[in-house]
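Batch job 17 of 40 flagged for manual review because the log was empty.
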Amino acid sequence: MQANFMIGLGSKARVPIISFSATSPSLSSLQSQYFVRATLNDSAQVPAIKAIVQAFGWREVVLICVDNEYGNGVIPSLTSALQEVDTHVTYRSAIHLSATDDQIVKELYKLMTMSTRVFIVHMFTPLGSRLFTKQMQMSTLDPSAIDSMQGVLGVKPHVPRTKELDSVKIRWKKKFQEEYPINEISELNIFGLRAYDAASALAIAVEKLSVGNFSFQKTNISRDSISLESIRVSPIGPNILHSLLSTQFRGLTGHFQIVDGQLHSSAFQIVNVNGEGEKGVGFWTQENGIVRRPNSTSKVNLRAITWPGESTSVPKGWVLPTNGKKLKIGVPVKEGFSEFVKVMRDPITNTTKVTGYCIAIFDAVMATLPYAVPYEYVPFETPDGNAAGNYDELISQVYFQKYDAVVGDTTILANSLTSMLTVQQLKPTITDINELIRTGQRGSQKGGIAAAFDEIPYMKLFLAKYCSKYTAVQPTYKFDGFGFVFPKHSPLVSDVSMQILNVTEGDQMAKIEQAWFGQNSSCPGLNSSLSSDSIGVDSFWGLFLIAGVASSAALIIRMATFLYENTDTLVQLDPPASVWRKIKALATLFDNKDLSSHNFRKSEMGDRSGTNGMDAATASPATNYPPSPSSLSVQTQSNFAFSRDQATPASEYGDQMSPNGQTPPEIAFGIELANSKQELKVPEVVHVNN
């Protein structure tokens, strides 16, 4: 109220109103060009507070402010900034400046019943000291203000230590002791330093003008008037304002510069109340965020912090409420696939028991949390025991705060990722694992089904029992699996998520699956080969039969044709020839190249036309007696050399023919040469008598 009055006074008189203590953000909205704030706006510390909350991962906070314009002014900007880092303000406590001790204690008891344990306090020093003292008195007798604030983190404008600052402090103590010799010497706080810099800035601005007339112009308003209209107007006030806004210098608090009518924001120091005072643990700058030193750009952690209770571990920011309230965990009421979730009611005691695969995992996860969380399962059902709705309606109960969480076979889809953490459930095509069996495997043409499309957990459960008759086929459409549903910003989410990984990746998960899904003794593992659809040798018996029959028929036909074509050769053998000699002769004939074939005749014609004076290997004239083995050297560029009787003319295509058209008694052999310049040993030539 004082600042508003003075700002209005300065506007009428056209003189700058310089304030070193008016920090309320609401004052900036007055749009008075003559108001110069030579201190920081309260909102200037909001980014530093946001950075601290984000650095420690706190997702819920409680704001405790003085119930006046000073406390309310920072609420909008602080709430908006915390939302940017996904931190929710769960409660706002407004304590009046004139509140009694009983009223403060009552408000503190209300805060104790809540789960949030991160409190952002924004109030004047006298009220803040009473708040911390009363909080400490709830567990300790008559603590001092500093004792009650042990472990508290705070932010304050960073004032660099300089020789000028030390000199002013020495002169201040000397002056104070001279004027108030019996009083305890008071240290200069930030407001005293801001006042010194504000006075220095005004002196510099006036000296730059070099004027001596500071009189006010007279007005026609009556002297008896007490309204603002009676205020005289300064002729040089606008000039002083312009000179002040352009003034820059290094003051006691750091660099002094007025930007947009207020002091330019500088660095903030992060302090930790410890022992008899405070210790600096880091800094926040607009350029680099949280750093260990004000002029550093290194993103290192803060120095060691002693938290409330002399703990060195970072508080998780929430605890279970002290009122003993249990978490209400909603579970679906369903038919079929009871291995996942099953709700049973005892008709005698009227108590409800919830079991199943999903329930067992949730129990294991909650048991591994480093703190105890009391909870109870509440079936989502009507008074007569039927389901109260579908899965979408069940999930929405978390948003409406009927349930603190939902546990069941709820599938995580892209659309568990909204502000309400809603998830949708693919309605099972098969509501009971015996449905396919009851249809008698008749198929879709006979009133049954040809295939079932469902989620993998249901399929695994079904195949675990009926693996010999059914199998899973591709493609598989990927989902994120089953999940537990918690409200957004729930402090349990991060810890539960971490413990889910520990449980599912450990040995306990296999035991849970074995207990609820088991394995049919007659069924192999789901990942092993199944007799109903596995591929083995017997799967190809038809192909083997066809190939065998075709190959056998081809072999028989070829042998029959060969024997028929070489009947004369067998007949011409000497009668005393043994069976082995006959077989050997047939084998030799079978292995001999067919000189009458098209490919061979084409090759020989090429050899005749493309060789330069190829030497032909000659044998002895045809006789009725086999010649002795001989060796000869053959020089050729061809891949083959042929041996033939020189006395017998060759046919057009190189075939040896007798004058009467019969095959001569001497048979030629083709020999493949490994090297065209190589010496060749000609084997013994087989003679067949006519």
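Reviewer: the log was empty due to a logging misconfiguration, but the result itself is present. The two ends are 142 Å apart (CA to CA). Unflagging and moving on to job 18.
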